[in-house]
């Protein structure tokens, strides 16, 4: 069976159950009823104090391309699971709803909507899987990247993960997410072409192995390149790699730009200190020491504590696979739905686990800052039409522990969910990637350090407005009353 179709589309990039539900909605005359779904995650990834939102660009292109092709319809027909009339309807399907989303690079927190679909039920259901797929991964990687960035400080940070990524798409979009989260460049050339991310790299052990010795390999590389970083650990870093790199750099003089050497094994702290001494003694004080080898934020922090003399960090596997937490766990839940009389009814998913009870109603998230110092005070989740920015003072309380509360006076409230699609039309200008990266950094700077530390950060407040809280309690009670009167 071929996996290539000339008219392949992304419309079938969905779980079969979405299409099954769509057929039910369509046949029962519910397809066009208005529904609001919200996407959120329950726990902060990596135990981090914040997450960095990424994935919107791909969401936009997914929605814009969302059309069933002839071979999609033929395939669905072949499965025997769908009615012919429904499939004919799908042939002309278009997403006609609205999407409000966090913009890329902005900070997001657990238990608040980070993207919202307000659309005819049939379309809102179809897009669930792809939206989760895109945002779960990209937000996870952008967050991991931000954690790594937080320990390297201003040192250049290179993304080397493509070869270890979970397949090609993950490498490309993971690289972009890493750039948003704070990486400076990537080894992935296609990501450079597609997104304008600076590309950067050194050379592999294969080059040295083909010449069978460091000197000939470095010399050959130097004769064929201006910018040179030599990988010095193929045979013996201190006895052969570094001395030969220095020898070639001296011989080539101004003909090359000797940028430094890369270490990829051994005790990076010890070796880097010796390498630094050797480069300095030889007069190459500006040459940089690059390090790679299964690095992540913990190892880098540890190497910094050991005063390793590393100037440039290359990080692959542990970033691109989100090694210590491979899933963000974001979910997509119905929060409001139009009844048969055209009335919007807020809906809830009850759980015995209190943190899993969804918050009903179409909502907005407001980032509250103190105007006196510009610092972020917390997020305030309201029902969609509330206007907290018009209030004189804002009473914020923890929805699980209501005795934890504060009243703010001199505050600003910024709406996090921005209109991206309105009635199927794109209304948002996607920013340049560098703008996104800068935006992210600016907003991270506004966060107190207590939320940014790597280990056991303070829990950032995500509070519900009184109206939103009361609405949730009312609906929990309605559901309880309904269940209690059932008799079987
Ligand atoms: N000084 C150090 N402190 C803490 N961790 C270190 C230090 N030096 C290296 N590491 C890390 O320890 C791990 C060592 O990896 P590993 O056991 O594979 O050794 P290696 O030297 O890379 O061997 P190989 O030659 O097989 O690549 C890597 O993740 C590396 O980043
Ligand atoms: O360790 P990571 O964080 O995943 O970074 C990427 C790794 O990929 C390369 O190794 P590989 O052994 O694949 O090839 P090489 O011959 O260039 O070392 C490189 O040398 C890094 O060690
Ligand atoms: O350019 C490099 O040094 C590089 C690229 C990919 C993976 N590891 C290293």
UniProtKB/TrEMBL annotation:
It is an enzyme of class 6 (ligase). Residues 12-136 form the Nicotinate phosphoribosyltransferase N-terminal domain. Residues 158-334 form the Nicotinate/nicotinamide phosphoribosyltransferase domain. One of its GO terms (cellular component) is cytosol. It comes from the Bacteria. Its EC number is 6.3.4.21. Keywords: Glycosyltransferase, Ligase, Phosphoprotein, Pyridine nucleotide biosynthesis, Transferase. It catalyses: 5-phospho-alpha-D-ribose 1-diphosphate + nicotinate + ATP + H2O = nicotinate beta-D-ribonucleotide + ADP + phosphate + diphosphate. Residues 362-470 form the Nicotinate phosphoribosyltransferase C-terminal domain. Signal peptide: none annotated. Pfam families: NAPRTase, NAPRTase_C, NAPRTase_N. GO terms for biological process: NAD+ biosynthetic process via the salvage pathway. Transiently phosphorylated on a His residue during the reaction cycle. Phosphorylation strongly increases the affinity for substrates and increases the rate of nicotinate D-ribonucleotide production. Dephosphorylation regenerates the low-affinity form of the enzyme, leading to product release. GO terms for molecular function: nicotinamide phosphoribosyltransferase activity; nicotinate phosphoribosyltransferase activity. Pathway: Cofactor biosynthesis; NAD(+) biosynthesis; nicotinate D-ribonucleotide from nicotinate: step 1/1. InterPro entries: Aldolase_TIM, N/Namide_PRibTrfase, NAPRTase_C, NAPRTase_N, Nic_PRibTrfase-Fam, Nic_PRibTrfase_pncB, Nicotinate_pribotase-like_C. Belongs to the NAPRTase family. Catalyzes the first step in the biosynthesis of NAD from nicotinic acid, the ATP-dependent synthesis of beta-nicotinate D-ribonucleotide from nicotinate and 5-phospho-D-ribose 1-phosphate. This is Nicotinate phosphoribosyltransferase. The lineage of its organism: Bacteria, Bacillati, Bacillota, Bacilli, Lactobacillales. The gene is pncB.
